[in-house]
Records
---
Amino acid sequence: MSIDLDPGTLWGIMSQPREEFPVSSLAGQMFQPTNPELRALYPDGVYIDLRGFPDWIPYARAVVEMPPPPPGLAVDEVRVTDVLAANELLLLAADPLAERRGPVPHTPEGWVWAHLAGSRRLALVPSSLHDSFRHGGGVATLEVNRHRTGLELPTGSADEYVPLVPLQEVSEAAVHKVEEHLNVRLPGSYRGFVMATNGGFPRHPGVHPEHGFIVDQPFFGIARNSWFEELSFVNMWVSDRFTHDFLAVGPVQGGMIAVKVHGDDSGSVWYWDDDDRNDAERYDAEYICGHLLHRCGDDFEDFWASLRLVPEPLLGVVRSAVDNGHAQLVDDPDAGASLPPAEQP
């Protein structure tokens, strides 16, 4: 798929040497996941283009074209509004996976919106494949205000907490078995969350005032319907970003949430950005955990209490982009070609 780049965007990409981006050493080659279950599901692998970025189009159930970022929005706000607008378009297109549980639609469960490098396009791809390796993308290459981070919340929004929907309760014995498998004692607040909800999800999409992710998926749990929702299974293939001091506990639109399980500050909650322009292929998990994770809670209860409903000014940006036709679904003939038949659009 060809992508037209304006000079500013092209300069933004080329100003960082190609070898700096994760997996850029595979430029022009196919990346094959190390996980055998993923290789069986997606045998074609992921093509890493000549710039060193994954080509997600063959795994895209849908592709959305967004307009240039509105003036005044910072990078985290652009990231949030892009995803929300994409979900609105998916719902308007009557995609069977699209779901609205309230005023703001969720991303389909098990999927993630990937920003495509050097463009304003997003592709809806399986989160299990997308999250299985580190890579750069369209947030890392986006020319946007980066001097300010986080989301500006209007007065009064501090009380708009995000309700939690539990999936089911989990027994002490089941949690203990997982702890033995992981060789770790789950910190108290997070342990209580797992026992009470088995990886619950927000009734309405939630955002964090200091970061650009959206919480709209169930967290990992125990004895779930898919291996890729299993707490113990997922943590077998995230060692490229997390040391044994951290446990990946759930996906978000924009990365993963992890809990520190060893050492000082045990129980604290951290955000890993999956499209971080500061990440580089030469970095290992030790460096990432020491320099690129973002602390977002003293414990899991504190983390959840810090989440807020999407602020109205950002919803206004989303409505404007969708209602005025500035954000649109794109008909790409190659979209979804490598998806299993059941996942194809």
---
Amino acid sequence: MNTVTLTQILDAPQDKPILIAGPTASGKSDLALQIAQNCGGVIVNADALQVYNNWRILS
């Protein structure tokens, strides 16, 4: 598994979306907020049940 720092994310090209995934309470929301504040971006929250409505997955 790769770990990426906030600096690496902020230095990456701005023409691609950023996907943040991980287990509960791993800091995803905090990281997303930091990135959005530094880049002037927005946060799009998509729960697995919303994204995979017809898939049989546990969430």
---
Amino acid sequence: MVKNTVLLLLPPSGFADEGYRFMKQALSEKGFTVAVASSSGSLITGLNGTKVQPEIHLFQVHASNFAALLITGGEGWLKTEIKGGFDRVVKAFYASKKVIGAVCSGPVVLARSGVLTGLNAVCNPLYKQELIKAGVNFTDKEYVISGKIITGRGAASLPTFAMNYCSLLKT
């Protein structure tokens, strides 16, 4: 499971449907399996009505079981408590030197977890202050790679973000 499985974190509600679908498809086309995890064990509804059943509860996640981590966006992240669950997962992937990708509001999760402090990153400009407040060097580009972490601006940057995320996975 490790080599080709990417863990996709979703908030318990309000994820970005387009980002979820686009990234899942892009990873599938490159031969990766996507496993969805969240703090909710029940059906999660996206901002536009897409329903997703997480395969794994947040507290059952072990970074060693996955090739990489991906956090797509959505307003749900701004209402979700990161400490004590999501941050543990992010820090475990970071400590394991796994590829971590986050797009749109997803980089806010990384920033709140402390793994972006002092690094260059981008997110949807609406959430720019969240990154700056966490000590992140906000860089206004389509995507930014800082070591094994890649961040993307938002829906318009998904094709470029996906291509570069998949390239990092192959290295």
---
Amino acid sequence: MKQRKYLDINGAVGRLCSPQKHFPFEPTELLKDMRSVRVHGAAITHNESREYSYVAGDRKLSKLAQEESRLFGVATLPPTFALETGKTDYLNNLLDNGFRGVRYLCGSARDLRSIAEALTIHGLPLFYPLIPFGFDLLEDILENYRELNVIVLSASWSDNRRLFPLLERHDRLYFEYSRNQANDILEITKKHFGIERVLFGTGWPYTSMGALKSLTEYAVLSEDEKDAVAHKNACRLLNIDPALLKPYDDADCEFDTIAAAADCGSPMPIKVIDCHTHMTKKEDVTPTVAMMLNSDCEKIAQKLDRLGVSAIITAPWEGIATDGISGNEQTVAAAVKYPGRFLGWNTCNINYPEDLQRWRDYFEKYPDIFVGIKPYWPYQKFSLLDERLVSWLEYADSRKLLLLLHTDSIERLGEAEILFARYPNITFVLAHAGSSFAVAEECVRLANARENVVLELTYTTLTRGMVEYLVREVGADKVLYGSDLPMRDPSPQLGWVAYARIPEEDKAKILSVNIQRLLALRKANPNKTANQVLD
């Protein structure tokens, strides 16, 4: 199988003061992960450089990079390094001996002069972690050092209204996309700023490497442009010879048919049903909360075709925000335009009597389209035990419908647990159960305690090892695939499952078999169109 070369520019190894139990930090584990999903090189920092001594950490990193040809060191040091070490040439020696840049640690923009000058002379970049340092300091650095290449690390898809103006004004600013999984982010970057401005990064060990490869593989780009994102842009900026990124032996990373399809950006070879999506009207362009371009049903349908997704269950953004009835109308329009591709979560803003009076109409008129309800408490600010929800919940219980519940924190799980017992015929889908292990552990407890509780994965974090953890703890039969598109591009969410280290049969269950089974539990309706998706 042909291998596209990938160079990860955002990872870290080494001991931490307080490591999280689910994440490894040993270089051997990094190399193992790289081999298993075919990432051919990684530019990394050493955790001890930040959490103990930058001198000790970078010394260990230098030794590691000399021993492992796939690893490249990025130094971490304060602007007062010369005073502290007594060596004015301390940084130049690091850069002359194989370090590929410097990760920002502390200090004002003016304080960075000696670091910026050394990097500029060597033609190497400053790596700037957006968290916790933010955009204001970044802009100061860009204004003060216009010849310095700066790579932003860990900017989120929700940051693009700050990031994009800076990209427009500063042609030496670049970003890696480990958290910037905005819908069509690569195509949008190419159109407005040039594909050379974006790089592959993962944030290892916290994030699934394979999942993030999928963003490049499924993008509407030429093969040369995909190569640029995957490794060529980073090789140019870090002065790394692409020949150093050696292909793996095929036996080192054997893929099943699902992972193999993802690895080359081909449509999935099995049925896929995405149970957690949104959309907007074409004329509305994007929600205000964050930039979500190409989010209308036509653009979404085109993307589903590229990924090989058979159908989605959607709750339009307007429906979960201000107007539940308008959201339901959008779902109906999409379902009519693309038969069998769009099913719906019934939406209702319970703060408005007219929504409360009309939500039922959509189940009665379109039983083939609406398969469940989505009470969206984060925006509409209500308790899950609010009396205004009762008729909606009772109806869902009587029809054996599904309920998609936002759970990226444990804030509402106590209330939810009461509902699980009160409405035993509703299948409660806990959305974002894979967002973190703290959330996952509580969701696992609930899913194991109640037959009518299942877990849905989606989140920007693409938490490393999460798919495997959920399958191990609750069984593959209780895990569902969702992407949250167009809030995020769906391709990394799909890759999260595709590259997971679980049996192919379990991947099939997560991607469609489980949701098909749950949809089939609904009470029979005169119109059977919805069930055509299940055939």
